[in-house]
Amino acid sequence: MRKTMLMPKTACLLWLFLCAGVLFAQEHTQQNEKNPLAGNPPAITAGKRLYEQACQSCHGGEARGDRAPALVGVPFKHGNLDGEIFLNIRNGVPSTQMPPFRRLSTEQIWQVVSYLRSLSGVPIATANESATGNLLAGEQLFFGKANCASCHQVNARGNNVGPDLSAVGRFPADLLRQKILDPNTSTNPNARGRRRGPSVAIVKTRDGQTIRGLVRSEDTYSMVLADTSGKLHLLDKKNLADVSYEAVSLMPNDYGKQLSEGEINNLVAFLKSCNGRDLAKTSNIEIPGGLSFERLRNSSAEPHNWLTYWGDYQGKHYSALKQINTTNVQQLQARWAVQMPGDTLLETTPIVIDGVMYTSGMPGDVYALDARSGLQIWKYSRKQKVVNPYQSNPFNRGVAVLGNRVFFGTLDAALIALDARTGQPLWEVQVADTMLGYSITSPPLAVNDKIIVGVAGGEHGIRGFLDAYDAKTGKRLWRFNSTPGPGEFGNDTWKGDTWKLGGGATWLTGSYDPELDTVYWTFGNPGPDMDAEIRKGDNLFTCSVVALDPNTGQRKWHYQFTPNDDHDWDANQDVILVDRMWQGQPRKLLIQANRNGFLYVLDRMNGKLLQATPFVKQTWNAGFEANGRPKFTPNAGATPEGQVVYPSLVGGTNWQAPSFDPASNQLFLVFNESGNRYVRAETPYEPGKGYWGGRTLPVEGSYVGIRALDTTTGERKWEHKISQGSLAAGVMASAGGIVFAGTREGNLIALESATGKLLWRFQTGGTIASAPISYAVAGKQYIAIAAGGVLYSFALPDIEK
Predict the structure, then answer these.
(1) Residue 189: what pLDDT?
(2) 220 lies in a domain?
């Protein structure tokens, strides 16, 4: 491949020059504190001295890069805003060579930031600077005659070829005018910082296609290119015949002839008014294209994609791909790894759509990656606004996608929509108060034009609920309460007003039947967890699955697995929707392996229990009534002295993904053979704190592993034991006859579906607390899983041509 290089004297677009030079850019974070010393000459001089003493040995003279990346002329990978740069200097960047500099004072760090900003040579506007011209007329020009919106966005209006201009008003009016009139002239010839390499590329593929566009991301072997329509091209450079780079902007250079002086002034006035992204405006924008509801309904037609948290609406967590199979899995190798630094483990399950992977990282972070190479397309980062000091599950398990929007929840219980093309925020709504114990840890479910999301916090005395929001605007459409209040069905199953603190968390993503237009959602344990005496009654709808109309939130039916639970056996496990013959009749089934140790088969038309069989040791259940209600053994509950009951509080299984193989009707899942001594104790309620109502003590003789269950009989077909004594990762079966699974000690393993025989393993080096997925790009199948703070993808070796 021949690679030609033209003089990189300008950026590709007017606005890209500004984005790269001053790093205004994508206001993706809440760490938006402005530098109080910006443009201050003494501060810049002091910052230069500090840089030379502390930073130059890695980042090179004048921050041009050496052992560490350049800090001028390129966007910063870990945040471009003043406040982000400040925090990265003070705290360091986890999982990189960047150490913390906490001995520097606040003033000294701002001085370093001032020096780095000065190297770009591009000034920042002074406070309250105004521009002559008519703002409204300028807005009409931007979206009309001047055709700026064919490349750029302001508050989500326009195209996504060039950078977002929603915050471009921070630049001086003279600079904006200059770059409109001559986008190919350097803003400051004496500036020491230069963007390393051009950003407009022309690529020629080996099949004769020519693509010209903006380089979104690039490394030695891969490139992400946005053409002039905004379409992304995910390119493997070995398939390119030629790559050349242009030294001119994509922006027209004749606006001085196209527009009058007055029109230029009007356009500058509008740009000066763009002082930051306005979510009140972005929440009402039509964004065409992307992942349609129809595609989600028919996900089985595109097995190369992984479109939802469970892989499909039916919750199967199964891949129909079979390029990787029992005959070649021994050749599987890691193809890429992406670090996602933070303070906890990754629990994410990525989404893959047409070669682009959307995934959460550490809480508050969302990434778009090239699914073939791992190359980052964009990253969104949001700092948690409010932190409950008793927060107990600091994880995020993924995102949902509908249209060109990406949806995810936060630990401070907000729901956020991002533009899938750019990672820019479109709307944010506060779902609940995290100081009362609420958070959102799992992906929402996108159904038609609605985003359905649940909440975590069942151990904090919350009143659980399930919400639906308008996907476009973020407006709440309905709410279904986990614990019914006075006048609501089920309120009589609670003693007094205990429903107010009754738990029933709804955090795990549900399943959906498009034909019946019914959502099936699972509900958590009652609170306090182990004190059933103060809340006597069945405590609906805790420990239940509820069938809901997604249009109204109205209940169709419910089934309660564990009435008046006092073991923390929430029902927040996957529900799998299967259409098959059952005892000689065609049936629409719902299958769940529940935390209480039973494998359930229900008729999902009406919630009738068809079969329940234990898949681990259990001592609480003596059978079932005709109506499906369990019969409790005499010694099934927690007591002040402590009662030994099986399974343990962790459960016979838990939220970790199982996998249903439709060919064999087998369910593969992680299991836990253990019991606990359950001790009941009075716990006073304090808002936001733990509300357990007791504790558990261990019982000797536990082990965990992976089991295959026949869903027709409940019979165990095989098991594979794992040495680590706790549940962690999920599993995924594939049409290649393999069950992929992770272990807590960091092994990704491949088991033969038919026998459980170990075929292959890979030590990732990090704790695995997520589930594998599979997808394909350009005909090659991949297996992806998160381990520790790294997201991995595996594939078979390339066949040399």
Answers:
(1) 41
(2) no
- Assign residue 13 a region (left: φ > 0; alpha: ψ between -120 and 50; beta: otherwise): beta
Query: How far, in Å, are 14, 262, 270, 283 from residue 177 at the CA level?
Result: 10, 12, 12, 30
The answer on 20 and 169 residing in a single domain is yes
Q: Are 314 and 412 found together in one domain?
A: yes
Contact 108, 50 (CB under 8 A): yes
CB hemisphere CA count around 366 (13 angstroms): 29
Contact of 655 with 506, CB cutoff 8 Å: no
Q: Which two tokens stand for residue 21?
A: 């030079």
Answer yes or no: do 324 and 269 share one domain.
Answer: no
Q: Which parts of the chain sit beneath pLDDT 70?
A: 1-32, 73-77, 80, 95, 121-129, 185-198, 724-726, 801
Q: In terms of domains, do 369 and 414 share one?
A: yes
Single out the residue in 261, 282, 303 at which a domain terminates: 282
Q: Which amino acid is at 796?
A: L
Rounded to whole angstroms, the Cα distance separating 783 from 749 reads 11
- Give burial (CB, 10 Å; 0-12/13-18/19+) of 105: exposed
| Concatenated DSSP letters of 548-591 | E-TTT--EEEEEESSTT--S-----S--EEEEEEETTEEEEEEE
Cα(801)–Cα(448) distance, rounded to whole angstroms?
Answer: 44
Q: Does residue 713 lie within any of the structural domains?
A: yes
Q: What is the pLDDT of residues 353-398, one digit of tens each?
A: 999 999 999 999 999 999 999 999 999 999 999 999 999 889 999 9
* Sign of torsion over alpha carbons 327, 329, 330, 336: positive
Q: What is the pLDDT of residues 254-301, one digit of tens each?
A: 888 999 999 999 999 999 999 889 999 999 899 999 999 999 999 999
- Two tokens, residue 246: 């242009």
Q: 275 and 377 share a domain?
A: no
Query: Tokens for 633?
Result: 């053994």
Distance CA 789, CA 394 (A): 13
Largest Cα–Cα distance in the chain? 90
- Beta partners for residue 560, in sequence order: 544
> In angstroms, what CA-CA distances link 574 with 395, 557, 787?
18, 18, 21
Considering the domain boundaries, does residue 681 fall inside one?
yes
pLDDT of residue 74: 60
Q: 700: burial class by Cβ within 10 Å (0-12, 13-18, 19+)?
A: exposed
- On whether residue 243 sits in a domain, the answer given is no
Rg (CA), the chain: 28
Kindly report the CATH number assigned to the domain that includes residue 495.
2.140.10.10
Query: What CATH number is associated with residue 53?
Result: 1.10.760.10
Boundary of a domain, candidates 282, 302, 329:
282
Q: Give the DSSP H or E segment for 776.
A: strand 773-777
- List residues with catalytic annotation: 568
Task: Identify whether the C-beta of residue 14 lies closer than 8 Å to the C-beta of residue 180.
Answer: yes
CB 536 within 8 A of CB 569: no
> How many folded domains does the chain comprise?
2
How many CA atoms are closer than 13 Å to the CA of 502, on its beta-carbon side? 31
Q: Residue 111 belongs to what domain range?
A: 10-191+252-282
Contacts by 206-211 with C-beta closer than 8 Å and gap 24+? 206/239, 206/240, 206/241
**Per-residue buried b or exposed e for 761-785, using 16+ beta carbons within 10 Å of the residue's own CB:** ebebebbbbbbbbbbbbeebbbbbb
Whole-angstrom distance, CA of residue 758 vs CA of residue 380 = 39
Of 139, 178, 131, the closest CA to residue 155 belongs to: 139
The residues pairing with 366 across neighbouring beta strands, listed in sequence order, are: 360, 380
* CA atoms of 684 and 169, how far apart (whole Å): 53
Q: Are residues 365 and 266 in the same domain?
A: no
Q: Rounded to 5 degrees, what are φ and ψ at 581?
A: -75, 135
The per-residue pLDDT for 126 is 55
